[in-house]
Amino acid sequence: MKRPPRLEIPRKAIYRLSIYLRCLLRLKANRLPTVSSEALARAAGVKSTQLRKDLTYFGQFGTRGLGYDVEQLAQLITDLLGTNSLQPVILVGVGNLGTALLSYRGFEQEGFEIIASFDIEPRRGRHSTKPLLPMDQLAAFVHERGVKMAILTVPVTAAQEVTNQLVAAGITGILNFAPIVLQVPEDVIVNNVNLAIELENLSYFIQG
Amino acid sequence: MKRPPRLEIPRKAIYRLSIYLRCLLRLKANRLPTVSSEALARAAGVKSTQLRKDLTYFGQFGTRGLGYDVEQLAQLITDLLGTNSLQPVILVGVGNLGTALLSYRGFEQEGFEIIASFDIEPRRGRHSTKPLLPMDQLAAFVHERGVKMAILTVPVTAAQEVTNQLVAAGITGILNFAPIVLQVPEDVIVNNVNLAIELENLSYFIQG
DNA sequence: AATTGTGAATTGATTCACAGCT
DNA sequence: AGCTGTGAATCAATTCACAATT
């Protein structure tokens, strides 16, 4: 899969690719063979020019006068995102939120599988078929299974230290739920999710 | 609490306010009385000019030559965000993710309380002390308790229909976990969280 | 006739540079 | 001397306008 000038592409454009993909999959399920940028953009909640501009970062995929081939564009975006094959992910920190996410079956549907979880104190609560392992087995496990992505759900006080361990073990993508700005080498990428901040943000806007 | 020209303030600046607040609370816990924009910005992972610019949207709070009073600035941001008092939130859609979030105790610590959950089919699985109610009681409950915010964790196929019900019931802030762009009146605000998209986004950046 | 692809224009956000306080 | 507050300058993202293509 050719993906040329990755550096100048806005981060938000990549997020939108995921949104477009979801819309395309719905269209595909409805047996729609093609879609115009106008229709797809409406479904994704953006302007059609933005959709077209986003796609031009990666090449030309449409047919003028006709639109885009739904299946082909969906496959293209899947290739770009690298979610063709099921990707192994580990989860670190089996507290409240970690347990919650482990019992969430939604990741598998989207191409990700949490293959193991880790905690300093591996507790009684077994979770389905996935092993819950002590932290000292993390490095070996990650190496052996070639895991690249981790979901981080440890308390904020432990987050930076655990991150250091993850990075040392070879993890290059971290989905961080701890409310702290993690320090990582520049080849490691961190996406932050903070549910409390999302609620606070709503709170700000609904006042008045 | 005076909050003047709300319209022109960048959305991202509001998100950053939440981040600053968390840093300030840590400083406060460490008994630091004041902090410079430089130090606070470093903790928050932004440039000091950005922090100062963000604050000027709301007024002038620092002392030149000295910095900001930690406690006072924390209180100010709390006031701005409207999280002084515990805010009631409902959760709709008690499937996998909904159950997961109900068992997550992290919201209370940040000023939000899920006071009830709703589902078309209120199942056996009781969750702690919170009532799990059928959808037809939603409107009355929201009205009676003055609830303004909802966490939406229904399947994507039901998301728009349930959103319509929420809006009709008087909800004005929705934290949406369904992978769909919700149509709402302009006085209703929606924040989207999509864990699969966050993982996909990581996936894109770690390839190579 | 319809619709894409894209350089130019515009809008928005961030950073700079420094004036103004304490 | 140190640090905030902010207009001006820069940088980035979005939208426009239209040429190119089927």
- Annotated CATH homologous superfamily of the largest domain in chain A: NAD(P)-binding Rossmann-like Domain
Percent helix among the residues of chain A?
40-55%
Count of DSSP E strands of chain A? 8
Structural class of chain A, by secondary structure, is alpha/beta
Oligomer: homodimer
List the topology elements:
Two copies of one chain form a homodimer.
Chain A lengths: L10 H19 L4 E2 L1 H8 L3 H9 L11 E2 H12 L5 E6 L3 H7 L3 H4 L2 E8 L12 E3 L3 H8 L3 E4 L3 H14 L3 E4 L12 E4 L2 H12 L2
Parallel strand pairs in A: 3-4, 3-6, 4-5, 6-7, 7-8
Antiparallel strand pairs in A: 1-2
Helix pairs in contact in A: 1-2, 1-4, 2-3, 7-8
Chain A binds a DNA duplex (22 and 22 nucleotides) through helix 3.
Main attributes of the structure:
208 residues, DNA-binding, six-stranded parallel sheet, Rossmann fold, homodimer, alpha/beta
Describe the structure.
- Two copies of one chain form a homodimer.
- Chain A has 208 residues and is of the alpha/beta class.
- Chain A has two domains: 6-81, Winged helix-like DNA-binding domain superfamily/Winged helix DNA-binding domain (Arc Repressor Mutant, subunit A), CATH 1.10.10.10; 87-199, NAD(P)-binding Rossmann-like Domain (Rossmann fold).
- Chain A is built from nine helices and eight strands.
- Chain A has helices spanning 11-29, 37-44, 48-56, 70-81, 96-102, 106-109, 138-145, 156-169, 195-206; strands at 34-35, 68-69, 87-92, 112-119, 132-134, 149-152, 173-176, 189-192.
- In chain A, the strands form two sheets. A six-stranded parallel beta sheet of chain A has the order 5-4-3-6-7-8. In chain A, strands 1-2 form a two-stranded antiparallel sheet.
- In chain A, strand 6 (149-152), helix 8 and strand 7 form a beta-alpha-beta unit.
- Chains A and B meet through helix 1, helix 5, helix 6, strand 7 and helix 9 of A and helix 1, helix 5, helix 6, strand 7 and helix 9 of B.
